[in-house]
Amino acid sequence: MIDEQKVAIIGLGYVGLPLAVEFGNSIETIGFDISESRIEDLKKGIDQTLEVNSEDIQKSRHLNFTYNLDDLKDVNVYIVTVPTPIDEVNRPNLNPIINASKMIGKYLKVDDIVIYESTVYPGCTEEVCVPILESYSQLIFNKDFFCGYSPERINPGDKVNTLTKIVKITSGSTPETSKKIDDLYKTIITAGTFKASSIKVAEAAKVIENTQRDLNIALVNELSVIFNRLEVDTLDVLDAAASKWNFLPFKPGLVGGHCIGVDPYYLTHKAEQVGYNPEVILAGRRINDNMALYVVNKLIQKMVLNRIDIHSSNVGVLGITFKENCPDIRNTKIIDVIAELKKWGTNVIVSDEWADPVDVEQTYGIKLTKIDEVRHKLDSIIVAVGHEEYRNLSCEYLRDMCKGLSPVIADIKSIYKKESLIEEGFDVFRL
Fold this sequence. Notes:
alpha/beta; Rossmann fold; six-stranded parallel β-sheet; 16 helices; 39% helix
């Protein structure tokens, strides 16, 4: 019976916390994280990721937060929501999911179920995680304990398409386990569930969701480069093409974050293991990873043509998070923009209304500056992230941030009217 189950969510980040809060509304739930400070914040109702508000955390009456491993010993359903990043050469870093499996294995009992939500390549759950669970528990898979995979579909910062409103893919290692897992998620997912035919199918479905988006963005990024050489405005072209009913409305941009810029490498890694070179997917990744360099080169080119001395210039970068209206700075491509600007000798001034200044400085060694502290100081601006605060800025305000007669503005997210920027005296570049 579902109401007799005790669920543990392992990892309380952007994915795990909303899941723990929802389950905690009706089922005895343990929210576990290795970060003591994270647990102490959550006990006070504070979520630094801003995904769940304090009221919802405190209303989840069956939810208890802990960093104490012994609190996991009475659990019978473990749900793993730890990160699955890539290393410096774009290979999957499975250490978080491996360590979580080792930890769970020590407490695993007969008839327990372990569900993985972390994004992995097809086969990872059964090829990597299950052997660890067996080794550490001394139990037999699909006889003593069972597994499932239900890929996360959290969209950080999205307050409309939240956890319960997105169809949940579920799967299990046996037909009976599959049904139990599907029934469990049905208690919280109002949008319904989709029961995949196997764990490997569920893993593959997740990894191709973001690979498809990555490739579509890569296409419009490449089109943007071509249209720029043809002196055609990319957004004008996309607006015209969108008049056809089946045109897909993707826009060019920097592709970062923990999903679109990472997940394709999990699939390509597995493809190469089985002897296939995934040319299209890797080509898309190369295009998107090179967009930061392209943006900076175009900005510098315009600055030189406008007789702005590069080595004495101040370039303002508005936004450092990987997406708008979200404090998440993981795998943000704005860091590549900043690094490239510094290679040219510019003084880079970075502002962000959402990112935690302490987190940014500790992670990237960058000190954030308040936007109202750079009036009349900048030679150029890169509007890198479409935060609502930046969308609400007038073109006059942006011009007032700058000095000189011909400042350059790179409106990466195309959030301002090009004509209005030109009227203010900007030399405009946008993807």
